[in-house]
Design brief:
The protein has four helices and no strands. Helix 2 packs antiparallel against helix 3. The chain is globular. The N and C termini lie far apart (31 Å). The protein is mostly helical.
Length: 73
């Protein structure tokens, strides 16, 4: 349960989908790659306006530099 005080200001309804996508993306790396298709389907249903961006970010990429080290760790 979240108990920290909320930041000062009002909630902008236009930013809620982006915030939701950020929360979803925070769990992206804990999913197994064979589940990425299902994960994309779920995220795309929740955020249809971000479909292209989600797909772009979830595409397979070659690790570079520090990413290679992080995968080994």
């Amino acid at each position: 349960m979240l108990t920290i005080e909320p930041p000062q200001g009002i909630v902008c309804p236009a930013e809620l989908p982006v915030a939701s996508a950020v929360l979803d993306a925070a769990c992206f790396e804990v999913h197994e790659p064979h589940n990425y298709n299902r994960l994309f389907q779920v995220l795309h249903q929740r955020h249809p306006q971000l479909g292209e961006e989600l797909h772009y970010l979830m595409r397979p990429q070659q690790p570079v530099g520090a990413q290679s080290v992080m995968r080994v760790a």
